[in-house]
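Pasting as-is:
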Amino acid sequence: MSGTVSILQQFANGLKSRSEETRAKAAKDLQHYVTMELREMSQEESTRFYDQLNHHIFELVSSSDANERKGGILAIASLIGVEGGNATRIGRFANYLRNLLPSNDPVVMEMASKAIGRLAMAGDTFTAEYVEFEVKRALEWLGADRNEGRRHAAVLVLRELAISVPTFFFQQVQPFFDNIFVAVWDPKQAIREGAVSALRACLILTTQREPKEMQKPQWYRHTYEEAEKGFDETLAKEKGMNRDDRIHGALLILNELVRISSMEGERLREEMEEITQQQLVHDKYCKDLMGFSTKPRHITPFTSFQSLQPSQSNALAGLLGRQKSVQVDATVFTCISMLARAMGPSIQQDIKELLEPMLAVGLSPALTAVLYDLSRQIPQLKKDIQDGLLKMLSLVLMHKPLRHPGMPKGLAHQLASPSLTNIPEASDVGSITLALRTLGSFEFEGHSLTQFVRHCADHFLNSEHKEIRMEAARTCSRLLTPSIHLISGHAHVVSQTAVQVVADVLSKLLVVGITDPDPDIRFCVLASLDERFDAHLAQAENLQALFVALNDQVFEIRELAICTVGRLSSMNPAFVMPFLRKMLIQILTELEHSGVGRIKEQSARMLGHLVSNAPRLIRPYMEPILKALIVKLKDPDPDPNPGVINNVLATIGELAQVSGLEMRKWVDELFIIIMDMLQDSSLLAKRQVALWTLGQLVASTGYVVEPYRKYPTLLEVLLNFLKTEQNQGTRREAIRVLGLLGALDPYKHKVNIGMIDQSRDASAVSLSESKSSQDSSDYSTSEMLVNMGNLPLDEFYPAVSMVALMRIFRDQSLSQHHTMVVQAITFIFKSLGLKCVQFLPQVMPTFLNVIRVCDGAIREFLFQQLGMLVSFVRSHIRPYMDEIVTLMRDFWVMNNSIQSTIILLIEQIVVALGGEFKLYLPQLIPHMLRVFMHDNSQGRIVSVKLLNAIQLFGANLDDYLHLLLPPIVKLFDAPDVPVVARKAALETVDRLTESLDFTDYASRIIHPIVRTLDQSPELRTTAMDTLSSLVFQLGKKGYTLADEEEDPLIYQHRMLRSNQGETLASGPVETGPMKKLHVSTINLQKAWGAARRVSKDDWLEWLRRLSLELLKDSSSPSLRSCWALAQAYNPMAR
């Protein structure tokens, strides 16, 4: 729980930050944590987290600090809709936001109003009441006496509600028009503009919602009349407004009326104006103007236009003079850019003279922007601009003058511009980043940039500064484009230099994409390698790097990698397809067996990407994939993660597009599921995805019209989307689906509706559980002696003992003696060695049934004894494994002491079954994952025990390594985890390298190990051992790493581990049957002495003591094991 508290405190601290970027990141991280991590916690922990989070949010929104209030609003916005409409939480958030208005900070009010709009969209059942309350409150504030804060808050809220929930807001349109103009005539400009933005939203709403025949022109007429009032001097004096404010408000209103006016009318007006303007306008004014220009005294105004050209030159000269200062104002460059846009090529010469002094100032964002504008507005200067900029970039990035290929070295220095050579070498992060960005974004067509791309790849991709590495990755990918076009062109001779440059730089980019410690850089590299590079990425050596990225720690990077590799499957299928088949199996395994909502959600998304990007791979496996997906839709978890269902539905939609008519046989089964989800109003996102999937299914299979007959409510469900849905995209999708389904005969539809039988038969399903009845025909000792007369006593005694023990074990009324019975059975099995196998059918069914029905107090003890029995019988336990695994799953309770006992039982089973344990591992993996995620034991001791057990799994983990490896890595990568647990996690990875191939997961393991080496000195030895094992494996796979013989540390480590492995593999020495025990004749003589035995009771007591003594001093271990039980339960001794 302490971990959750610390995480919550981190979120709170981030939301309180004065930095806007930090607050936004904290809100985003909070949303990610709630949607991903929190869903895997228990209901109690989740409730506790939300209670504490609500307390933090209340403190934030109640704070006097504006930054903290902004953080509180961001937190509320990030949580809206996450849990699918928790009414209590939404109501609480509504009160928080309501109390923030009005505010003395306009930004806070803007953010709060937007949050109110989002809350109204997610409100579900109480949206209508909420919107009505907020609109009425806002209109009351407008109608009351002027309060600046309330008026501003009111117009902001009205605008957001009109945009977010137009259906409900439309019911309040008339009161809105009655009150909004009060704010339009407010003396404060911000309130006027806010009121007009609300008016705009409402006018758009009325034009969209009303058909032409139902439009009410009085609203628009009223709006126009209000605008006219702004030009009425008498009304203005009454309202006490100054002239500028009054006209500003009127013009704003007119602007909105023009904005929503008929586009058809505007088009006709333009056509009419074009036809009539010459006659009506040009002729009249041209005659007047020409007559006016013939008079001598009026020629001067026209000559002033001619004098404009020298003034431009003077202006540019003045700018040139300003350039000489050390620090140049950015507005100078803005002015030059505006001049170029206004005058175009006519000022080419003046701008050309300015280029050199401009470049001499040094690189800046303003300079880059003006050079870009100049190259577009004055194309004649494009080459000069490119040359000058490249010279500057060469000095900034390579610290030497630009030297074109083939140019002598001395000539480059001679041709270098004197003004540019005086630019100081920029070594700061900002300058280099800007230079790289300029190099990548500016148009340098016609110039060879090979030397730049090589230099960037060699020097900046490995910079210690994140910003430089990020920009270098983007720049390198952009600069490779000309070389790629050159290679992929239709020229007969392909430039080998270009081929080599692309290969070298791409290789270095991919190395950064899998080895850079910062995930943002790795993501940036993969995102920049788009379709342009496919022909080169499809080479085997580059694909190998992408395969490593498929197992990156960060899910978003894995998504990018699988999209890229899937795209390449058509270009190099021989190399890609086998790996993708393996990935497909892993993804389906995660989806089926992980038992963790977040992992299943990610698996479904990965499967969707694989389906859409590698259709050739998917088509042959469509049926098993669809079966796995339908199982997830039909049998969701008790507390299903909405993301799982949404992504599974989306994947089915993608699969329908790929499979086409092959999906036809599944369409009825899928329609029933999708219909249920379309009518589930609890989660809007699920309904949207179900609607899209329905459209994909209908479009791909051609299943049209018929669904209306089979599912008569379908039409009503789809029409409800159009009636009630606020989101325009969802409404559009509903219309698309209606169009795909085709036209429906109204009469047939009425018949279909009439045929629906509303009465549902209440069918009672009787679940009869067939239980195997235990053979109750127990033989007496005498009968067994007759039946087994030919057997030696060494076999007779255990059989007699077992029958007697099992008789007690099956009797629930004697449950107080079951503990002693189990101890006796365990001792007999131990004494018999492998000869005890013959008694398994007699013992195991009863033993397992007792574990299920017994009191919880002794269940842990029974599991412990079961582990001992497994260690005795070894692989002979195989017939009972299904029931044993079921028991472990049923009674594996989180944060209970029984966990440790079950883990020890698993260890015994692994040793007993060896490779056969792999069959039962998938059923246990979900419980193991929950231990790693939610273990609250002291020092994470349960996790440590589980790690020790996993070390014994060996090759059994081969198909499930991708499931267990991430939480193990996360365990040793987390600084707040106890050192003992982190060390055990590292040792587990180290031990598993002996039997499993980790090369595909190198990226996922090595980055955390490197962080551990840097941050945890106490774990460096263990981390280095693990790293050595991984390096040894990577070396075997042909990666460029140190050779084992050349690295004595790796060689010594491997020898040490192999020796330890041999010791463990040998296991415990198997013991045979126990020898006969010593018999004490003295004790027996005392027991059978019959002196002073007179009455019947005396003889009965004598017989009891003799029986106990015979058991106690018996030479048979089986009989002797029953002595303690016989003391507590007299009939046993007979």
